[in-house]
């Protein structure tokens, strides 16, 4: 086999291997985020908030659903989105600027497209594991009406994470100076999306002039699909196919941009 | 024999800036080849093109007989690269850094592990194998980076400013390691703005300034060609150097007046010092030394390498 043939095919996998190995250094944070955070939300909302909410917020195929069943798909999707707030921001900036790991990979046979591919693949696996753990917990809390169709939620949540995360990754890769941009994203993009994406109450409860935030939000689209999977389409919602298409367009656009930025930056 | 690197009219521009301006050079296998020049001379840009991570704007380039624009992965799989700034992974242990990096070349894990142990011995880092990278000193990090660059048993080892920022002792340890590689027949390509480094390590070098090659040859050839055998360095005090130099006219083959000292190029430095005294001039300090590449550079560019 000629030199470089193996990396030409598997370069992305080597990058993913490296990324996972490096994740061990903060494995405890990952586990806490994957299990601890859902537990806190489920206990807080299930035992606290849900006890106060007596009106039914949504109806499933078999009548009204509980508040916890309404919130659970949103919490699951937001855990995937939350992962990208770390993995696709500071970690990427560090790879280019502080620790400069990407330059080391770049000097090897691995291509820039494979570098970004490996990073994304490693994070997708982390999102799938986290959302799967989340799913087991919400089933245990009785927060999923139909656990069979609901079992697709980790996939949908991960797609939501990518729809939000890949454009963010492209942005993070394009930044050369840290001027607190990621804190701004956290404050003015992530937090509003979390609050205005029909997470804790149906989006149409909001006045129309605020609903657009939800329409633009990958989190809302992923949540709505998750709700359909758990308890059937909530009344008045957009068709599942439209939500799915929007998520796919967002993720694809982000992916194309991220690849372009990585190539431009590493092969200048 | 075909050279491992052959560049003809190699050019790289970034917008209006011409970083590398049509350079020609060849490196045969087993040679230790240096690019000597000040910061911003185009050395690193040349290294990036040879390293197949930056495409050329014009000219022709062959590395290991291949065109880097078309065969990047094939070329890079046979190169070892030591960058100017360390990019080791601090989340991984010292030994893990070598293994993980070997994987990028498609080398099986077991082979990586075996080579990692050999390379740690070579880099004199055996007892640091399980340490964190951040626990290492600057010199140790450099040695680890060199060890990492050797994990794929490269045909060419490229080093960009390998000892910049190291203390003298760490530099000598590093030179010793590089010299051993050279003895084993590894082709070395290095950039440096240190003359002593170029003299120690390079069989042949090109002096680069403003993206162009000013001169080419072995260190001793260059010194013979562009400088005299010896140099007398005289200091008369900052205000008086220029006046003194005027009176020294004709005494040496060539005189360079620097802000802090006057350099007199001659074949017999001691004899020259005597004649200076005979003229009634009394420098505050004087010394005679052998000419170095610094003098070559000064002659070629009118500037000092480190300013």
From TrEMBL, chain A:
<keyword id="KW-0812">Transmembrane</keyword>
<dbReference type="GO" id="GO:0140359">
    <property type="term" value="F:ABC-type transporter activity"/>
</dbReference>
<feature type="transmembrane region" description="Helical">
    <location>
        <begin position="114"/>
        <end position="145"/>
    </location>
</feature>
<keyword id="KW-0472">Membrane</keyword>
<keyword id="KW-1133">Transmembrane helix</keyword>
<protein>
    <recommendedName>
        <fullName>Transport permease protein</fullName>
    </recommendedName>
</protein>
<feature type="transmembrane region" description="Helical">
    <location>
        <begin position="184"/>
        <end position="203"/>
    </location>
</feature>
<comment type="similarity">
    <text>Belongs to the ABC-2 integral membrane protein family.</text>
</comment>
<feature type="transmembrane region" description="Helical">
    <location>
        <begin position="70"/>
        <end position="93"/>
    </location>
</feature>
<dbReference type="GO" id="GO:0043190">
    <property type="term" value="C:ATP-binding cassette (ABC) transporter complex"/>
</dbReference>
<feature type="transmembrane region" description="Helical">
    <location>
        <begin position="39"/>
        <end position="58"/>
    </location>
</feature>
<feature type="transmembrane region" description="Helical">
    <location>
        <begin position="151"/>
        <end position="172"/>
    </location>
</feature>
<keyword id="KW-0046">Antibiotic resistance</keyword>
<feature type="domain" description="ABC transmembrane type-2">
    <location>
        <begin position="29"/>
        <end position="265"/>
    </location>
</feature>
<dbReference type="InterPro" id="IPR047817">
    <property type="entry name" value="ABC2_TM_bact-type"/>
</dbReference>
<dbReference type="InterPro" id="IPR013525">
    <property type="entry name" value="ABC2_TM"/>
</dbReference>
<keyword id="KW-0813">Transport</keyword>
<keyword id="KW-1003">Cell membrane</keyword>
<dbReference type="GO" id="GO:0046677">
    <property type="term" value="P:response to antibiotic"/>
</dbReference>
<feature type="transmembrane region" description="Helical">
    <location>
        <begin position="237"/>
        <end position="258"/>
    </location>
</feature>
<dbReference type="InterPro" id="IPR051784">
    <property type="entry name" value="Nod_factor_ABC_transporter"/>
</dbReference>
<dbReference type="InterPro" id="IPR000412">
    <property type="entry name" value="ABC_2_transport"/>
</dbReference>
Automatic annotation (TrEMBL), chain B:
<dbReference type="InterPro" id="IPR003439">
    <property type="entry name" value="ABC_transporter-like_ATP-bd"/>
</dbReference>
<dbReference type="GO" id="GO:0005886">
    <property type="term" value="C:plasma membrane"/>
</dbReference>
<dbReference type="GO" id="GO:0046677">
    <property type="term" value="P:response to antibiotic"/>
</dbReference>
<keyword id="KW-0547">Nucleotide-binding</keyword>
<dbReference type="InterPro" id="IPR003593">
    <property type="entry name" value="AAA+_ATPase"/>
</dbReference>
<dbReference type="Pfam" id="PF00005">
    <property type="entry name" value="ABC_tran"/>
</dbReference>
<keyword id="KW-0067">ATP-binding</keyword>
<protein>
    <submittedName>
        <fullName>ABC transporter</fullName>
    </submittedName>
</protein>
<keyword id="KW-1278">Translocase</keyword>
<keyword id="KW-0813">Transport</keyword>
<keyword id="KW-1003">Cell membrane</keyword>
<keyword id="KW-0472">Membrane</keyword>
<dbReference type="InterPro" id="IPR017871">
    <property type="entry name" value="ABC_transporter-like_CS"/>
</dbReference>
<keyword id="KW-0046">Antibiotic resistance</keyword>
<dbReference type="InterPro" id="IPR027417">
    <property type="entry name" value="P-loop_NTPase"/>
</dbReference>
<dbReference type="InterPro" id="IPR050763">
    <property type="entry name" value="ABC_transporter_ATP-binding"/>
</dbReference>
<dbReference type="GO" id="GO:0005524">
    <property type="term" value="F:ATP binding"/>
</dbReference>
<dbReference type="GO" id="GO:0016887">
    <property type="term" value="F:ATP hydrolysis activity"/>
</dbReference>
<comment type="similarity">
    <text>Belongs to the ABC transporter superfamily.</text>
</comment>
<feature type="domain" description="ABC transporter">
    <location>
        <begin position="5"/>
        <end position="235"/>
    </location>
</feature>
């Amino acid at each position: 086999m000629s030199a470089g043939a193996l990396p030409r095919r598997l370069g992305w996998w080597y990058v993913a291997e490296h990324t996972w190995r490096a994740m061990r250094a903060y494995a405890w944070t990952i586990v806490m985020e994957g299990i601890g955070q859902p537990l806190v939300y489920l206990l807080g909302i299930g035992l606290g908030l849900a006890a106060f909410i007596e009106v039914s917020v949504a109806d499933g195929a078999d009548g009204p659903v509980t508040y916890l069943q309404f919130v659970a798909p949103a919490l699951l999707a937001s855990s995937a989105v939350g992962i990208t707030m770390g993995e696709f921001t500071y970690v990427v900036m560090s790879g280019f600027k502080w620790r400069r790991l990407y330059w080391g990979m770049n000097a090897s046979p691995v291509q820039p497209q494979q570098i970004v591919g490996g990073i994304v693949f490693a994070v997708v696996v982390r999102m799938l594991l986290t959302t799967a753990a989340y799913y087991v917990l919400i089933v245990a809390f009785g927060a999923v009406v139909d656990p069979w169709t609901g079992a697709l939620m980790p996939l949908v949540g991960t797609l939501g994470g990518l729809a939000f995360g890949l454009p963010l990754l492209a942005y993070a890769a394009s930044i050369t100076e840290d001027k607190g941009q990621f804190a701004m994203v956290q404050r003015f993009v992530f937090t509003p999306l979390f609050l205005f994406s029909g997470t804790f109450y149906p989006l149409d409860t909001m006045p129309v002039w605020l609903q657009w935030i939800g329409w633009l939000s990958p989190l809302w689209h992923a949540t709505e699909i998750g709700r359909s999977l758990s308890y059937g389409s909530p009344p008045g919602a957009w068709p599942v196919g439209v939500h799915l298409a929007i998520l796919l367009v967002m993720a694809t656009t982000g992916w194309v941009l991220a690849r372009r930025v990585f190539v431009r930056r590493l092969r200048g | 024999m075909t050279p491992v690197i052959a560049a003809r009219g190699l050019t790289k521009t970034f917008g209006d800036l011409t970083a590398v301006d049509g350079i020609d050079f060849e490196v045969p296998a087993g040679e230790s080849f240096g690019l000597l020049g000040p910061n911003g001379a185009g050395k690193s840009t040349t290294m990036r093109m040879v390293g197949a991570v930056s495409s050329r704007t014009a000219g022709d380039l062959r590395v290991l007989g291949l065109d880097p624009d078309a065969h990047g992965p094939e070329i890079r799989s046979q190169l070892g690269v030591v960058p100017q700034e360390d990019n080791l992974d601090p989340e991984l242990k010292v030994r893990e850094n070598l293994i993980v990096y070997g994987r990028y070349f498609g080398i099986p894990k077991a082979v990586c592990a075996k080579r990692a142990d050999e390379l740690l011995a070579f880099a004199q880092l055996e007892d640091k194998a399980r340490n964190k990278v951040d626990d290492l000193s600057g010199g140790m990090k450099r040695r680890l980076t060199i060890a990492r660059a050797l994990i794929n048993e490269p045909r060419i080892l490229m080093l960009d400013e390998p000892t910049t920022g190291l203390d003298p002792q760490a530099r000598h340890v590093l030179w010793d390691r590089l010299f051993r590689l050279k003895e084993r027949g590894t082709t070395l390509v290095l950039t440096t703005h240190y003359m002593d480094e170029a003299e120690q390590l390079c069989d042949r070098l090109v002096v680069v300034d403003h993206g162009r090659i000013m001169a080419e040859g072995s260190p001793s050839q260059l010194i013979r060609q562009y400088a005299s055998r010896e140099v007398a360095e005289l200091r008369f005090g900052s205000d008086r150097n220029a006046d003194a130099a005027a009176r020294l006219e004709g005494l040496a083959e060539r005189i360079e007046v620097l802000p802090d000292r006057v350099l007199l190029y001659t074949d017999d430095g001691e004899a020259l010092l005597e004649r200076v005294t005979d003229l009634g001039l009394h420098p505050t300090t004087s010394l005679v030394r052998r000419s170095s590449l610094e003098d070559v550079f000064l002659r070629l560019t009118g500037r000092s390498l480190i300013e």
